[in-house]
Backbone:
């Protein structure tokens, strides 16, 4: 088994999403002794956001690409290869301003590619990354799973949508929310999420 672990929590020493991804990966490794982990930290090694130069690079012959285009095309290919090789993708996704961190969005923009991870057909778009599992380690300062604030949630819903679009429909969410509502609330949220991780079918 190959696991791709993607982390996007800004505060590496106190990030709840990073704590959860570590626990998830450890749980999967405990059940799969030969599991290989590829770690992509989009905070420590940011992926440049798409701009016109990067977006158009794939349509430019290699000898006509700028140095930056060649560098960015190579990075995109590396990111795609990591996704192609993975049997399971574990994504650490804190909620920032009701959505995912822009660094994680930049990673998504590189791997969501027509002809590579999805294609358009006469019946509409078709995801090409079938047969893979994804686990989202979701961390939220407030409560967004219910109540009035649920309408502001564009984090888990976005990731589930984009993963489904590229063919990954087996998605599990491990959520710790309310972590900024005090130490007791944080401990309870992380404890509940940890219990869910321990109960995962990680085979």
Residues:
């Amino acid at each position: 088994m190959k696991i791709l672990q993607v982390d996007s929590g800004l505060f590496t020493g106190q990030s709840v999403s990073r704590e959860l991804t570590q626990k998830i990966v450890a749980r999967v490794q405990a059940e799969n002794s030969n599991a290989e982990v590829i770690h992509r930290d989009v905070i420590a090694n940011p992926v440049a956001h798409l701009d016109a130069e990067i977006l158009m690079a794939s349509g430019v012959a290699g000898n006509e690409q700028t140095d930056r285009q060649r560098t960015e095309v190579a990075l995109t290919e590396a990111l795609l290869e990591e996704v192609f090789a993975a049997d399971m993708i574990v994504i650490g996704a804190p909620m920032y301003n009701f959505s995912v961190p822009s660094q994680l969005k930049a990673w998504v923009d590189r791997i969501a590619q027509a002809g590579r991870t999805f294609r358009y057909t006469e019946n509409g778009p078709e995801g090409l990354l079938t047969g893979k599992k994804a686990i989202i380690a979701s961390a939220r300062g407030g409560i967004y799973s219910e109540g009035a604030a649920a309408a502001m949630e564009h984090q888990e819903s976005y990731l589930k949508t984009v993963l489904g679009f590229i063919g990954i429909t087996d998605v599990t969410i491990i959520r710790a929310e309310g972590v900024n509502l005090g130490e007791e609330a944080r401990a309870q949220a992380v404890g509940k999420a940890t219990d869910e991780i321990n109960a995962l079918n990680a085979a």
